[in-house]
Amino acid sequence: MTAPDINFLTAQAKKAWPQWRALSFKERGKQLKRFQRLFSSQIDDVCKLMSSENGKPRFEALTAEVLSVIQLINWAVKKAPKILKKRKIKLALLKYKKSYLYFEPLGTVGIISPWNYPLSIPLGEAIMAMMAGNCVIVKPSEVTPLIMKKVAKLFEEAGLPSGVFQLALGGGDVGQALVNSPYVDKIIFTGSVATGKKILKQAADTLKPVVLELGGCDPMLVCSDADVERAANGAVWGCFMNAGQTCASVERVYVHHHIADSFIEKVVEKTKKLRVGKDVAFDVDVGAITYPPQFKIYESQMQDAIFKGAKILEGQTSFHPPFVKPTVLLGTNDSMKIIQDETFGPFLCIQVVYDEEEAVRLANENQYGLCASVWSRNLKKARHLAQDLEAGTVVINDCSFTHALSETPWGGRKMSGMGRVHSEFGFYELVHIKHVNEDRGWFKPLWWYPYSERKYKLFKFLAKLLTLK
Ligand code: NDP
């Protein structure tokens, strides 16, 4: 497609919207469940397609994408009627008046998504938007458009009314046209910080609200009392799954010096055992790098890290696309590009710290704030550390998986973006929150005309009275 095609898509969405929004939650849910059953009957084809297009092992396509979307549909269908139901607000003072909240769909929601999770990101967001009564236009990354094409076909087969779910297929210019369109009511963007900033600036012209789910450089804090075996397994999986091309992958490990030696030894040993390559017979742990320009970033970050003193304990420094051997670096520090920026590849950076306080300080001294993890046998301590971390999500004794929990909010702080997807907070991003206040008209409010000194004194008395509360 080209940018002008967006006009056609928005017109189709506008046509479909009145009927779609008029449906009850139950009816919209029925249609999405029909899609879910069809989708579920083709799990093997879907995983195979995702693996061949994106390079990830089919196991990851199933667990991180297919399964999480199937569960998200169940959650959204069940919870939307409760979360988005008209509700009464108890008024503190004017008891004779009544206030209600109504959650009204926005209209057309534009969803712009990246190539690393080409199914679970755009489809999860689309399901929630549609359940809330919106029409959606999804622009998948042009690097991985096939899986969403398959999804669009399944929606059609499931009988979803035309115009409710549409694809904008094309590159950045098509995404830009979606952002610029006066007929798109909100943009949910997932991608890089650079594109996120461009979108925020463009959206200012139409004063369009945006949710920005951007990059991360997630820290992992391994405390002196951590279960070392579990933490090492967690670090290896959290960093190398999806070949490290995960916004919430573990990138920076801060390990307490008391347990550093045994932790590092285990991490290296487990990394050596990972099987890298193309998924032929479910015999691969780490798949391919999806987007070749990533290799330039890896080379530059690795050269910089080695030049500044990092040691490679396992892995490689020169690359032969499309695979990268999972790589473990020791002695990284925050002067290095690999620590300052998102790597988006299978590189695990370990830094030994004196204590947990130092770990928290280093963890927070970073431009990103998406997720973080704390590893300790002492939950009380771990909870305390979790509160000190500047992140949208903190996971204790696990990592990198909570995007799959549709009932929990997902989003970051600082350069990791703004707004939330999933959970009730994600639903609130997809509606107008309308307040309606009612009065039966029995009394004339005292603050209306005419003003007088007597009334002034009365309200002053009230102000004093409220101060005493
Ligand atoms: P990009 O920012 O390059 O692209 C994301 C999407 O935006 C793509 O569909 C892209 O199209 C489109 N796009 C590009 N330029 C514009 C523009 N000017 N206006 C509108 N849309 C545009 O990100 P990547 O695809 O490289 O994805 C990797 C990034 O995504 C990483 O930084 C990663 O951390 C982040 N991410 C964040 C997540 C989160 O939840 N916080 C989750 C997953 C990834 P096209 O590809 O066709 O050029």
Short overview:
The chain has 469 residues and is of the alpha/beta class.
Descriptive notes:
The protein has 2 domains: 227 residues, Aldehyde Dehydrogenase, Chain A, domain 1, CATH 3.40.605.10; 187 residues, 3-Layer(aba) Sandwich (Aldehyde Dehydrogenase, Chain A, domain 2), CATH 3.40.309. The model has no long low-confidence stretch (mean pLDDT 97). The protein has 469 residues and is an alpha/beta fold. The chain has 16 helices and 18 strands. 43% of the residues lie in helices and 18% in strands. The radius of gyration is 25 Å and the shape is globular. The strands form 4 sheets. Strands 10-11-12-9-8-14-15 form a 7-stranded mixed sheet, sandwiched between helices. It has a 6-stranded mixed sheet with strand order 5-4-3-6-7-17, with helices on both faces. Strand 3, helix 5 and strand 4 form a beta-alpha-beta unit. It binds NADPH dihydro-nicotinamide-adenine-dinucleotide phosphate (NDP). NADPH dihydro-nicotinamide-adenine-dinucleotide phosphate binds next to helix 7 and helix 8.
